[in-house]
Structure formats: C-alpha cells, structure tokens
Amino acid sequence: MTNDNSLWRDLQERDSEHVWHPYSATPSRGEIFPIVAADGVRLRLADGRELIDGMASWWCAIHGYNHPVLNRAVNEQLTKMSHVMFGGLTHPAAVKLAQLLVRLTPDSLSKVFFSDSGSVCVEVALKMAIQFWQASGKQRKQKMVALRSGYHGDTFGAMSVCDPVTGMHHLFGDVLNKQHFVAAPKAGFHEECPETEMEEITDLLTSHHEEIAAIIVEPVVQGAGGMHFYSPDYLRKLRALCDAFDVLLIFDEIATGFGRTGKMFALEHADVEPDMLCLGKSLTGGYMTLAATLCNDQIASTISNSEAGAFMHGPTFMGNPLACATAIASIELLISQPWQRKIQRLNLQLEEGLSPARKLPQVNDVRTLGAIGVIELHEAVDMQRVQPMFVDKGVWIRPFGKLVYTMPPYTMNEEDLAALTAAMVEVVAAL
C-alpha cells in the first residue's frame, strides 16, 4: 500500500486545530494517529501502515471491524428507517432486542430501558433506584454506595459513584452528590471472600441503610478504575446484605457484558441476580452507541403505579432502530458460535504471551481473566513516549496509569495475538 504522508500531516494539522480528544488537552500533547479504515482486527493508518487492535475500540468491537453480518444488519435497517422517536411509538428492532436481553439475563430482570451511552445507562439506574424508593414511601433513601477503585462513567450522577480519590473526577468533588464508598474486595478471583471483607460495608449499612437507595458495583472486574479482578463470593455476600438491609443492588456490566470475562455476563461467576443491570459498549459489537438498563418487575411496577405515574427519563435517541438492529445481529452472531471456546483460547494465549513480563523488575503484577490481559507496573507510564512505541511495533495498545492492558476482539487469531502480547512485553521491558 502506498504511503500518503501528506494525508497524515493534513489530518493531524486540522485535528490539532479543531478537535478535542477524550481525557486530553487541546491541542493534544501527545501524537494523534490518523485512521482511515478498519477491517477484521486491523486499523489502517493514513500513511498505509496497519495496526493490530488490542483495545477493540475501548472494549466494544468484539467481532472486529467491517463484519459482513453487522454491515448487512445496518444496511437492511437503513432501508426501513434510521430513527424514530420512542415516545408513544415502538418498532420491531427495539421489541426483539428487549426480548433477547431479557432471555439472556437473570430471570428476575424483565424490563428494559434503552439509552444512548454507558454513562447515561448508569444515570438511569441511579434515578430508577431513587424514584423506586420515593414511590415506596421511603423518601430518605437517596444515597448510593460504591466501591473504591470503581468507575461508572463521566456524567454527573455516574461521576458521583466513581472513586473520588483515585478516579478521574476529583476536580468536580465539590459539586457532585456525596455518596458512600467502601474498600474494594481484596480477595482474588479464585479465592473465597472472608467475612472480614464485609465488615466495613455491613457497618455502613447498619448505620445508614435508611438513607441508602442502592449499591452499585462492577461485578468481578473493576475496569477503568484499575483492572482489578476480585472474588465472585463477594457478590454473593453483597446480595445477602442488600436483602437484609432493604437496599437495591445495581451491577454495572457495561465493560464486562457479552462474554468478556468468559461468561456471557460477569454476574454468572457468582450466580447472583441484581435488581438492576447496566449494559453497553459491546452491545452493538462496537458499531454505534447504545445502552440498556434492565430492572425487575417490582421496581418497574412500583414506579409506574406511583403518584408520578412514569419514570422520569427519556433520551432523544432512545431505542434507535439502527442501533437496536445492529445489537440484535451482534448478539445473535455471538451466541451462534462456540464463543466460550474462543474466550478460553484467548485467555490461555494471553496468559502464555504475557507471562514473560512477570520477570521484569518494573512489573508489579500480570493477570488475565477471559479476554482481558493486564500488565501492572510499579510506576505510571509516560503516554507520550509509550504510545508511539506500540505503533512502531504495529499494534494499538492504549495504556493508562500503571496499566498496560489488552481487551482484544474475540475474532483475533493466534498469530495476531502472539504479535500483540510480544509487543506489550517488549515495550514494557524497554521502559
């Protein structure tokens, strides 16, 4: 393929002049790499080079890019309607997707509220919890409990339940709702959770349950807060506490849903049913933005039969037909394949490929779970230095903090995954 350095420079210059990137200054202090196409697990740069994508576009492109099944779903829906308001109207794609999600998730989750992003999905869950308790005559129950090192999104309600110390939102601390936080469980994924780990949250619920509406956690895997894997047994004990103290339990599976941890949903590792479940990211296979908040009949009926008579939320693009049709195609594509074997293969190869990093003095830990591989360093990486090093090796890895990690598309073959993990180890070794 012919290199086009003029296109590369042109895109970078115009980007620098007008575009503000996530978690970044403007103009960006690090190099921005122009992408002109994507196919399979590869991103094509404007200068003709290709990168093996180890991030699945922030964990959502589970089938890779330009997949014929998803392309067909988009094109077929586009000939019917790209969008229609959801207030007072419905359409086949939304109805079918809701039925599919209810069938795949725990039996008690029977109602689906669509929104257009993961952060908004969390906002919906928080509002739903508060409105449920108001409708139940318990107006004091408006506070949330969350785990340290947790991350749930960048909108205001979602920020309020992210870790206020180690998270990204301390600048807004004075204007966010003050929530309760407890230590993240220390027991590892393969360990039982000792009762001592539950003492802090038990004490908190004992003292404050009358004002607590819900507990929100990322089950088994804390994502952007540190890629921490913890004991499923903690979730079983947490469910029992919520039942004992009359507190709702919200699972945020925006990052872990649809197979990423080796189960369709991470909650299956604990065999626990939440009162609400937040889904997003890979819901559409990375094609477009869509999220869903699922709840049980008790929450839905209590809110619907209250004085308000409705749940007070309604995104403009709620239940977007293009997004719903693509989500159906993505989920059906996933479950039609031996996806568990795919995830197991990825996990075994991630473990093998990243294990040499354990011998490096700058490495604190190497861990894998499902299609997640993490190298945790003792010190934070210098992104301006590290990002070009990965690009030069032909891979796209986007570290943050002390973490060099990958969440590859499920379609990645052994050769590409070997190249990806080798690049991760080599770059870390060079730091």
TrEMBL record:
<dbReference type="InterPro" id="IPR005815">
    <property type="entry name" value="BioA"/>
</dbReference>
<comment type="function">
    <text>Catalyzes the transfer of the alpha-amino group from S-adenosyl-L-methionine (SAM) to 7-keto-8-aminopelargonic acid (KAPA) to form 7,8-diaminopelargonic acid (DAPA). It is the only aminotransferase known to utilize SAM as an amino donor.</text>
</comment>
<feature type="binding site">
    <location>
        <position position="151"/>
    </location>
    <ligand>
        <name>substrate</name>
    </ligand>
</feature>
<feature type="binding site">
    <location>
        <position position="252"/>
    </location>
    <ligand>
        <name>pyridoxal 5'-phosphate</name>
    </ligand>
</feature>
<keyword id="KW-0032">Aminotransferase</keyword>
<feature type="site" description="Participates in the substrate recognition with KAPA and in a stacking interaction with the adenine ring of SAM">
    <location>
        <position position="23"/>
    </location>
</feature>
<keyword id="KW-0808">Transferase</keyword>
<comment type="pathway">
    <text>Cofactor biosynthesis; biotin biosynthesis; 7,8-diaminononanoate from 8-amino-7-oxononanoate (SAM route): step 1/1.</text>
</comment>
<dbReference type="GO" id="GO:0004015">
    <property type="term" value="F:adenosylmethionine-8-amino-7-oxononanoate transaminase activity"/>
</dbReference>
<dbReference type="InterPro" id="IPR049704">
    <property type="entry name" value="Aminotrans_3_PPA_site"/>
</dbReference>
<dbReference type="InterPro" id="IPR015421">
    <property type="entry name" value="PyrdxlP-dep_Trfase_major"/>
</dbReference>
<dbReference type="Pfam" id="PF00202">
    <property type="entry name" value="Aminotran_3"/>
</dbReference>
<keyword id="KW-0949">S-adenosyl-L-methionine</keyword>
<feature type="binding site">
    <location>
        <position position="58"/>
    </location>
    <ligand>
        <name>substrate</name>
    </ligand>
</feature>
<feature type="binding site">
    <location>
        <position position="314"/>
    </location>
    <ligand>
        <name>substrate</name>
    </ligand>
</feature>
<keyword id="KW-0093">Biotin biosynthesis</keyword>
<feature type="binding site">
    <location>
        <begin position="315"/>
        <end position="316"/>
    </location>
    <ligand>
        <name>pyridoxal 5'-phosphate</name>
    </ligand>
</feature>
<protein>
    <recommendedName>
        <fullName>Adenosylmethionine-8-amino-7-oxononanoate aminotransferase</fullName>
        <ecNumber>2.6.1.62</ecNumber>
    </recommendedName>
</protein>
<dbReference type="InterPro" id="IPR005814">
    <property type="entry name" value="Aminotrans_3"/>
</dbReference>
<keyword id="KW-0963">Cytoplasm</keyword>
<dbReference type="InterPro" id="IPR015422">
    <property type="entry name" value="PyrdxlP-dep_Trfase_small"/>
</dbReference>
<feature type="binding site">
    <location>
        <begin position="118"/>
        <end position="119"/>
    </location>
    <ligand>
        <name>pyridoxal 5'-phosphate</name>
    </ligand>
</feature>
<feature type="modified residue" description="N6-(pyridoxal phosphate)lysine">
    <location>
        <position position="281"/>
    </location>
</feature>
<comment type="similarity">
    <text>Belongs to the class-III pyridoxal-phosphate-dependent aminotransferase family. BioA subfamily.</text>
</comment>
<dbReference type="InterPro" id="IPR015424">
    <property type="entry name" value="PyrdxlP-dep_Trfase"/>
</dbReference>
<keyword id="KW-0663">Pyridoxal phosphate</keyword>
<feature type="binding site">
    <location>
        <position position="398"/>
    </location>
    <ligand>
        <name>substrate</name>
    </ligand>
</feature>
<comment type="subunit">
    <text>Homodimer.</text>
</comment>
<feature type="binding site">
    <location>
        <position position="281"/>
    </location>
    <ligand>
        <name>substrate</name>
    </ligand>
</feature>
